[in-house]
Amino acid sequence: MPHIAYQLYCSRNFPPLAETCKMLSEAGYSNVEGFGGLFGDLPTLEAALKDNGLRMTSSHIGLDMLENDPAKILEIASTFGTQKMFVPFVMPDDRPNDDAGWRAFGKRLEAAGKPVKDAGVAFGWHNHDFEFVATESGAMPMDLIAEADIDLELDLGWVARAGLDPVEWINKYAGRIKAVHVKDIAPTGEATDEDGWADVGHGTLDWGSIHAALHHAGIDRYVVEHDNPSDDKRFATRSITSINAF
């Protein structure tokens, strides 16, 4: 069975955190993935997880915090026993527009993540869909970023949103992928109030072939995510049920 975690960002619109953690525990989760918005109050986060038997085994971290306050990042990893950390995003105005820029961005990530890796924590990049828009040369930014010495957390939903086959990208970077975001896409025209995302196993992705590819590649870290669920309990419960049935 895969190691299943829940990205707490999914429930950012459903406070308080303690109730979210209680809901996740009751739904069958034992692991979560954190995000930067939680790190302003580490004691509250620590108590919510501990009281509900949850561990924050992976986390998203902001590149600015990583570069400007690496000691804070290492404190978070140490406090929660976090094993994997990923930078998840860069604002549109900060995105490179050519091959050299994307290569330099990968090197920037590599340099920023060195203290994390030196502390024994896996470090890498988490994709959206903009990394799969080819540059003028025809190169994929995802490939250019991946030239750097970093790990990857492949978001399968965003790969599919970019019009590409998640299985091909799983196979391409099998040795580099330390975790995957397991998210689903609703049929065209459905779930418009949820930005077109679906509960895992209730959308259009072919989880049979995806799960088989992940298993073949030895990737067993599944992070459940939905960017905008209207009901996080429904999403969390139905998604873990689907994954357990893969």
TrEMBL record:
Keywords: Isomerase. Pfam families: AP_endonuc_2. Gene3D superfamilies: Divalent-metal-dependent TIM barrel enzymes. It comes from the Bacteria. Coiled coil: none annotated. Residues 24-226 form the Xylose isomerase-like TIM barrel domain. One of its GO terms (molecular function) is isomerase activity. SUPFAM superfamilies: Xylose isomerase-like. This is Sugar phosphate isomerase/epimerase. It comes from Cognatiyoonia sediminum.
